[in-house]
Amino acid sequence: MKRAKLLKTEPIEYPKIINKRKAVALSRITEADGEQALEIDLFFAGERRARYFADPENHYAWINGKWTDDRLDNAALVCLAGKARTGGWYYYGERNYVWASAEDEERTENYLGECVEYYEDNLSQSKRQQAQNRKTERINDIMSHVPVVPDGMDRWIEEEIFPENYLFFRKTPKGCAYSCTACRGKGWQKKRLKSGARIICPKCGAEVITQKSKEQTISRKETIVLLQKLSLPKPIKIGRIQIMASEKHWIERQFHAVCSWEQEKKEIHLYEDIRVLIPENKTYGKVYYGTSPNADEFGQTFWDSNPYNKRFASAYLYPGTLPDALPDCLKKSGIMEMMPQKFQVNKYIVNYESQPWLEYLAKAGLTVLTSEILTEYGWFYVSNEPYEIEKNAASLKEALKLDGNRTHRMKQINGTLNALRWLQYEQRQEDKGKHLRISQESLEFLNRKKISPRDCEQLLKELGSVDRMVNYLKKQKVAPTNFIYTWRDYLRMAQNEGYDITDDIIRYPKDLKARHDQLVEQINRREQEKIARGKENRYRELDIKIQAHLLEAKKYFYEDDTYMIIPAGKCMELVEEGRTLHHCVGLNDTYMSRMARGESWILFLRKKENLEKPWYTIEIRMEDDKILQYYSKFDRKPELDKVDALLKKFKQSIPKTRKVQIRIA
Q1: Strand arrangement of the beta sheet that strand 35-44 belongs to
Q2: For labelling alongside 622, which of 3, 159, 224, 495 has CA 20 to 30 A away?
């Protein structure tokens, strides 16, 4: 459409039609340089306010001295109000113009082949489809240059990622019939087999895991990342960026591999999810997502939006294309040292330049720590127990903020975040002049059991020795984290009852559970007597302070079809809960004071079939919504699987209001 020449044509003469509410529209067929177009002029208050031109391919409006691609009705609104509406909702409003005559409307429909609104809708849809098609062609052109998966990658996945084979068996009256996924052979033997044992296949001699045949299929899924060089034979446009064929690029590709073992068969399928096109010597680029949930490299199509919410995940990095595929900026980054470890490859690549201390950790063999930082806690956030990393460190010791001996100990066990926290804790105590030594055996136990200094802070104030604490924990038959809370409560109660907690007989009872329950009963009995006599009013002031935090605690209310979780609201509710369930929540004002300070909150888990009957008592930390402990009658945990599943759903329902940032000096 030759807009400038059409604008120079003689405009339509004003018909002297008055309408005080709407613009008046007149139409005609206009010609400029042999090209025809429909012209619609809009008049209001005796003035021509806009000229609208349309042909089969485009429409434009000349309003207030400039061209716009507004629709006719929106152009009329500008004539009336001086401002167009945005968004699609104005389509459903009343028309802002009237036709000067039936002939004007008929002329418009004859030229366009339909009413102006349908014409504009269809033209917009057609243009969107054309733009979509052009974009699809550009992306498909880019993807056509991506090299195929290397030949050795399938073998590497089978041997390194899914090396297991299974011997499926079923018992017969005289022995066991079996089939092997390694050799696909069948057999029979007199010797009985047990599920889950590692044995040698009688047919092929391969190591296999025995599995009962009633388990028809075993499957496992892992994420794989492949890095490759990318050659472009011709210039390609990505968004607004023109990429020349002479420019070097590399590509990061994320797959998920699914291995399934069935009787006599082992199959691996490789599906591609994400591709990132990255310029040479850059660590970030354009991301494309697979539009199918499960499609291989030849069946997958890619788009720059994310229809299936695919995410970069912790993955195994394929070593076959390295180091040739790595750009120069990453060849010394430590990423190759991370390869035996499953880790967040994409996050390592993207964050390496801003967090160069990742290189020190990886090259020192601290792959578990590096992976934990990237995988479990993401780029910038960790748990509410922060660890310290020196951002501008010139060595591994400076990065970890440890001396040489402790750095060596960290490397010996390929330590986790918890191990780092314990060694930093030990060094801080030494800097304060306190002699607190953690043996390597204790450090390995704390590292393995994921026990942090914060969990043991109160205990260590009383015990003064990490090694003695660990030795006592090793003797227990329950999970250490649960045991620590019980132990801490026991020592607090014993001290309040006047026992000498510096005495090892008191500190380390042979049967902690029995001693804890005994103290609970003793204190409960006394508290009940005080309440019965009406001589205990100390909760009144705490109740007032608790009321101030009730609004915040309301977020912990939860219910489903079977259960309900109710936040406590008064001290006496805790007393009654402890008395009924025979545990320590209401023995004294410890938990009540924490509620009054807004540190933690007590929640009551009830079965909806009997809401009046106490079942479980939960303590949750308000700072980060971490469930600290939960117990039923006599500190037991009945129906634990159901309760754990319920608490997981409960945690997911809590509104997330804050995150704690990594402390980087």
Answers
A1: 66-68, 59-63, 47-54, 35-44, 23-32, 97-99
A2: 495
Residue 548, classed as helix, strand or coil, is: coil
Tell me the residue type at 21.
R
The span from the CA of 271 to the CA of 293, in Å, is: 8
Token digits for 12?
């339509």
Instruction: Tell me the C-alpha distance between 15 and 25, whole Å.
Output: 10
- pLDDT digit string, tens, across residues 202-255: 989 999 999 988 767 899 999 999 999 988 766 666 555 556 555 678 999 999
Per-residue model confidence as pLDDT tens digits over 119-174: 999 999 999 999 999 889 888 988 988 999 999 999 999 999 999 999 999 888 88
Mark residue 598 as left, alpha or beta (left: phi above 0; alpha: psi -120 to 50; beta: remaining).
Answer: left
- Stated as kind and residue range, the H or E segment containing 540 is helix 539-547
How far is Cα of residue 310 from the mean position of the Cα atoms in its chain? 11
First to last CA, the chain: 62
What are the φ and ψ backbone dihedral angles of 141, each rounded to 5 degrees?
Answer: -65, -40
How many other CB atoms are found less than 10 A from the CB of residue 159? 9
CA–CA separation, 170 vs 176, rounded Å?
6
Predicted confidence (pLDDT) at residue 314 exceeds the cutoff of 50: yes
The band of 353, judged by pLDDT with boundaries at 50, 70 and 90, is: confident
Phi, psi values for residue 169, rounded to 5°: -140, 160
